[in-house]
TrEMBL record:
Enzyme Commission code: 3.6.1.31
Species per Swiss-Prot/TrEMBL record: Antarcticirhabdus aurantiaca
Keywords: Hydrolase
Name of the protein: Phosphoribosyl-ATP diphosphatase
Length: 110
C-alpha cells in the first residue's frame, strides 16, 4: 500500500470545499470555481480522456496519476454542482442491491 489508507475522497471533498470558498489567488480549485461549471466540467472530460489513454497504454504509474487528476476534478465538479459526495455514495450503495446488468435493465426498461 502507498500510505494513503487513512486519506479518503471525503477528506479531499472537504479540502476542495474549503479551497473553492477561498479567494486565495494561488488556489487552482478557487480559479476553477470562478471560471464556472462549463470550464470545470470540460477539464473533467479532458482528465477522463487522459485516464482512458493511460489505461489503454497499460502504464500503472501513469494510470495512477491520471486517475488522481480525474477524481480531484470530479470532486470540483460536484462541489460547483452542489452535489455532496455522500449523495453519490448513497446512490452507489443503493445499486449494491443488484448486479450491474440488473441496474442497467432497470434504467432502460423494455
Ligand atoms: N488533488 C489535487 C489536484 N490534482 C490535480 N490538480 C491540478 O489539476 C491540474 C491538472 O491539469 P493538467 O494536467 O491539464 O495541467 P495544467 O495544464 O497545468 O492545467 P490547466 O492549466 O490546463 O488547467 C493541474 O494544475 C494540477 O495541479 C490538483 N489540484 C489540487 N488538488 C488538491 O486540492 C488541494 C487544494 O488545491 P488548491 O485549490 O490549488 O489550493 C490540493 O492541496 C490538493 O489536495
Amino acid at each position: 500500500m502507498s500510505g494513503a489508507e487513512r486519506f479518503t475522497l471525503a477528506d479531499l471533498e472537504n479540502i476542495v470545499a474549503e479551497r473553492a470558498a477561498s479567494d486565495d489567488p494561488k488556489s487552482y480549485t478557487a480559479s476553477l470555481k470562478r471560471k464556472g461549471q462549463p470550464v470545470a466540467a470540460k477539464k473533467l472530460g479532458e482528465e477522463a480522456v487522459e485516464t482512458v489513454i493511460a489505461a489503454i497504454e497499460g502504464d500503472p504509474a501513469r494510470l495512477t496519476s491520471e486517475a488522481a487528476d480525474l477524481l480531484y476534478h470530479l470532486l470540483v465538479v460536484l462541489e460547483i454542482g452542489r452535489v455532496p459526495l455522500a449523495d453519490v455514495m448513497a446512490e452507489l450503495r443503493r445499486r449494491t442491491a443488484q448486479t450491474g446488468l440488473e441496474e442497467k435493465a432497470a434504467r432502460n426498461p423494455g
